[in-house]
Specification:
The complex is a heterotrimer of chains A (about 260), B (about 270) and C (about 350). By secondary structure, chain A is mainly alpha-helical. Chain A has eleven helices and no strands. The longest helix of chain A is centred in the N-terminal third of the chain and has 34 residues, at about 55-90. Chain A is globular and about 70 Å long. Chain A starts with a helix and ends in a 6-residue tail after the last helix. Chain B is mostly helical. Chain B has one domain (about 45-170, about 195-270): MetI-like fold, CATH 1.10.3720. The mean pLDDT of chain B is about 85. Chain C has about 350 residues and is an alpha+beta fold. Chain C has two domains: about 5-235, P-loop containing nucleotide triphosphate hydrolases (Rossmann fold, 3-Layer(aba) Sandwich); about 240-335, Nucleic acid-binding proteins (OB fold (Dihydrolipoamide Acetyltransferase, E2P), Beta Barrel), CATH 2.40.50. Chain C has helices at about 45-50, 95-105, 110-120, 140-150, 170-185, 195-200, 220-225, 230-235, and strands spanning about 5-15, 20-30, 35, 60-65, 65-70, 80, 155-160, 190-195, 205-210, 215-220, 240-245, 250, 255, 265-270, 275-290, 295-300, 305-310, 320-325, 335. In chain C, the strands form four sheets. Chain C has a six-stranded mixed β-sheet with strand order 6-7-8-3-9-10, sandwiched between helices. In chain C, strands 13-12-11-14-19 form a five-stranded antiparallel β-sheet. The radius of gyration of chain C is 24 Å and the shape is elongated. Classes of the chains: A mainly alpha (about 260), B mainly alpha (about 270), C alpha+beta (about 350). Chains in contact: A-B, A-C.
Chain lengths: ~260, ~270, ~350
């Protein structure tokens, strides 16, 4: 029985280390005082309220949301066919294509941001927003391909052949037979992509301009100027939002097996 | 498998071309800048970069922190993953979900919590003062310890996830079999678990090490300019001095080390089997 | 050639650089039930996939119903295929699985309904129309898959290892069911199998394949009793096959002098043709196993190993016993030297 308690202790300590800090920011954001302290000087929800009134937070939240939604959709539009091709066809240079598509995962984001700034935004007058959109699409793409691929690999390809023999075109077979059976994988890819994109920081460090800032960057610069609990409150709100999304995704999709 | 490979290529190419042209090409150009000094191809940039003591310190520190975080998370990861796979189905899912959860939360939020914990008026200092261990608050924030803790919290889940899936794939009953044959727990770990889960360890190790090397937010928030790491150094060089040569060099170092770590770990894994 | 319904002419099939079937010629009559039989890797499934249009031949022609279909896409050939895995659509009900192909034909809804109901009825699944495949047993899934192909009224129905995923009892039911359906519909059926018993029980004609080449084509009787090659003999249960040299037969360890009638080629005996207990030859019992109606022996001799069988009621010879046995000339099957057998 001791091993059972040791095991519980190890899991308990690890989870405290991983998750405990979030409870702390939730409380830190509830401070009634003007500075960050823990335990907070009295309790109030004023900083949680303030977050919604800060103009720059609202704008940067909108930008981050836009990038996360449309960047991920674009990544899926590119990624689903690519995943399908990789899993169903014996394409030439398959390894090269896989490596290229997966590359954004290992290129540090800060370099990506800088590179796009120097070679697309400045010389080719891409707007910062467009560059951000492209960077986010490329960053989400590897996740989209990976998650959708694993869904496809769990789906036997003879189903498509059966559909073709019953009269479907190849595209018809994909729409009628493949897509309905990988939709939870595609949805999981969307959620993973959305969260990855929304939380992405380094890419946007150099890709920001007047009025064009992603939310995490805005939080970083706010922190440099002010040391009030509103960033804690905002962090707590974002954390709760993520928890809600992940909870729903886990409940309906069994999300954690896709991560 | 379908035979029409041209059709397959047509499906895969848009994604590959998008990434290659709009992502990899600009990055490649940036990296190549480090080899050009005054319009000439040269390695002088690297020589200059390597000769600066600050750069040396930052490089070694980044490597050291990456290694320490990877090692620590491997140790905690094995203990924790082993406990998780021994839970029954329902609890296993719940605990696993809680381990995955932090990955979905903004790293800014995750790192920010440490300011509250480690700051001058944070929990740790409150405790130290209350216990009379020191008369004045200790500086923990903006030290390597703070950055280490932040990175560990950020990347430990990746290691646990990799090891849990490796341990789940362990053939059933090998551990009891080894025990029955007289192996001690240490022998069970070194002779059975480690060799059979090394792929998971390599995967987790690469993710954690690479993640720590290329982390920006954690060193920026918890280390500041006192504890620069390669990414924060890069940001500073560009922002303060418009120094794209250094940026290209740091970028090359980071990418090379990420690749190198992966290859090295793979090789170690192969050699042990 | 003129009465061939499915005709494969000089068909060559390859995956990339790997040639699976070098050159294959085969004619199948309308309404025949044909088995493509052979060990795994013999090219039988590849040949079936080529007939279905799921793979393009390197060269050669495929005629179906007198029309050259070599380059007709799979969805325009009008051929049914029952996959080994059944390949049912997991997101659709049994009814919708069967209706899938009919809907693509833009058939009126009322006709689809009656055809699907009839199809489900034929395979005895009317009561499960609203179930999803995952809620059905293996046997039911197989019949559903069959119904899905049959409602399309295919010119040819292909079946990939149709009985391999079923347990012993269901296998017997399904055999009868397939024969019944074939008689009732008159559809030309080609099924792929590695199981000689299955091929013997079901097929009108068997096409035995090895390494992409047809070894022998014939009725079950012909293949069982008159195998044309050493491979065919081995496949159909002649477990004792020996080369003849002069008046000797050659085993793996040596030769046995005896006066057999044949002068060259091979002699083959089924275990049941060799009885233990009396005879001119001697060997040591290495293994005995009880197999219901008979008892099977493995006997070690000076020239090699022999597999023999006695009626189960006969006395038992224990392992290690020295026994006498006979290789009766009259029950030996003679294989003259041909082609690739040596």
């Amino acid at each position: 029985m001791t091993s059972k308690w040791t095991s519980r202790l190890i899991i308990g300590l690890t989870l405290t280390f991983l998750i405990g800090p979030f409870f702390i920011i939730i409380f830190a954001g509830m401070s009634a005082g003007d500075f960050m302290t823990f335990p907070p000087d009295g309790l109030s929800l004023k900083w949680y309220m303030k977050v919604f009134t800060v103009e720059s937070f609202r704008e940067s939240f909108a930008l981050s949301l836009f990038l996360a939604i449309f960047g991920t959709i674009a990544a899926l539009i590119l990624g689903v066919p690519a995943a399908y091709a990789i899993s169903r066809y014996n394409i030439p240079y398959a390894e090269t294509i896989k490596t290229v598509v997966a590359a954004p995962i290992i290129v540090p984001g800060i370099i990506v941001g800088l590179a796009l700034l120097r070679y697309l935004v400045v010389p080719l007058s891409f707007t910062v927003t467009l560059a951000l959109f492209m960077a986010h699409t490329a960053l989400v793409l590897p996740y989209a391909v990976r998650v959708v691929s694993s869904s496809l690999n769990n789906l036997r390809s003879d189903m498509e052949e059966a559909a073709v023999l019953l009269g479907c075109s190849r595209i018809g077979a994909f729409m009628r037979v493949v897509l309905p059976n990988i939709q939870s994988g595609v949805l999981a890819a969307f959620i993973l992509g959305f969260v990855t994109s929304f939380n992405q920081v380094p890419v946007s460090l150099f890709l920001s301009g007047p009025g064009v800032r992603t939310l995490p960057i805005d939080m970083l610069s706010y922190m440099e100027i002010t040391y009030d609990p509103s960033v804690a409150a905002l962090s707590a709100l974002l954390a709760l939002l993520s928890v809600a999304i992940v909870f729903l995704a886990e409940k309906f999709l069994g999300f954690s097996r896709y991560v | 498998m379908f035979q029409n490979n041209r059709e397959g290529l047509a499906l895969a190419l848009p994604a590959a071309l998008f990434t290659a042209i709009l992502f990899l090409l600009p990055v490649g150009l940036l990296l190549s800048e480090a080899f050009k000094i005054g319009g000439q191809w040269s390695l002088q940039g690297y020589v200059d970069f390597a000769s600066k003591p600050l750069n040396q310190t930052v490089f070694l520190r980044t490597l050291k922190l990456g290694f320490l975080v990877a090692l620590t998370s491997a140790i905690i990861g094995y203990a924790c993953a082993f406990c998780i796979v021994n839970l029954d189905g329902k609890n296993r899912g719940r605990v696993f979900g809680l381990v995955v959860l932090p990955l979905m939360i903004s790293p800014v939020a995750r790192t920010y919590a440490w300011i509250v914990i480690l700051g001058r008026t944070g929990i740790v200092n409150d405790a130290i003062l209350a216990l009379g261990l020191s008369d004045t608050p200790i500086r923990i924030l903006f030290t390597e310890t703070a950055v280490f803790l932040g990175l560990l919290q950020l990347f430990l889940p990746l290691m646990i996830i990799s090891l849990v899936s490796a341990l789940e794939n362990l053939p059933k009953d090998v551990i009891p079999a080894a025990r029955v044959l007289g192996a001690s727990w240490i022998q069970v770990f070194t002779k059975i678990i480690l060799p059979l889960t090394k792929d998971g360890l390599v995967m987790g190790g690469t993710l954690v090490f690479t993640g720590s090397l290329t982390a920006y937010i954690t060193p920026a928030i918890l280390g500041g300019s006192k504890v620069l790491m390669l990414e924060t150094l890069l940001y500073q060089r560009v922002n303060v001095a418009n120094d794209f040569v250094s940026a290209g060099i740091i970028a090359t170092i980071l990418i090379t080390m990420s690749f190198g770590a992966n290859l090295l770990l793979k090789r170690i894994a192969k050699a042990r089997s | 050639m003129s009465n061939a319904f499915v005709s494969l002419q000089k068909l060559s099939l390859a995956y990339g650089q790997t040639v699976v079937v070098p050159e294959l010629n085969l004619d199948i009559r309308e309404g025949e039930l044909i088995a493509l039989l052979g060990p795994s890797g013999c090219g039988k499934t590849t040949t079936m996939r080529a007939i279905a249009g799921l793979m393009t031949p390197q060269s050669g022609k495929i005629h179906i119903g007198g029309v050259d279909m070599t380059h007709t896409p799979a969805n325009k050939r009008g051929i049914g295929l029952v996959f080994q895995s059944y390949a049912l659509f997991p997101h659709l009900t049994a009814f919708e699985n069967v209706a899938f192909g009919l809907r693509l034909k833009k058939m009126p809804v009322s006709e689809i309904k009656s055809r699907v109901e009839e199809g489900l009825n034929t395979v005895g699944l009317s009561h499960l129309a609203d179930r999803k495949p995952a809620e059905m047993s293996g046997g039911q899934q197989q019949r559903l898959s069959l119904a899905r192909s049959l409602v399309m009224e295919p010119k040819v129905l292909l079946l990939d290892e149709p009985l391999s995923n079923l347990d012993a009892r269901l296998r017997l039911d399904m055999r009868t069911e397939l024969q019944r359906l074939q008689r009732a519909t008159g559809i030309t059926m080609i099924f792929v199998t590695h199981d000689q018993a299955e091929a013997l029980a079901l097929a009108d004609r068997i096409v035995l394949m090895k390494d992409g080449v047809i070894e022998q084509v014939g009725t079950p009787d012909e293949l069982y009793n008159n195998p044309a090659s050493k491979f065919a003999a081995d496949f159909f249960g002649f477990e004792n096959i020996f080369a003849i040299k002069g008046s000797n037969i050659i085993g793996s360890n040596g030769s046995l002098t005896a006066n057999f009638d044949a002068e060259n080629g091979h002699l083959a005996w089924r275990p049941s043709a060799i009885s233990v207990g009396s005879g001119p030859f001697q060997g040591t019992v290495m293994g005995v196993s009880f197999a219901g109606e008979q008892r099977e022996y493995v006997i070690k001799t000076d020239f090699g190993q022999i597999k023999a069988a006695n009626p189960a009621a006969d006395p038992v010879y224990e392992i290690g016993t020295l026994v006498a046995f006979d290789l009766p000339s009259k029950s030996a099957w003679h294989l003259p030297n041909v082609g690739n057998d040596s």
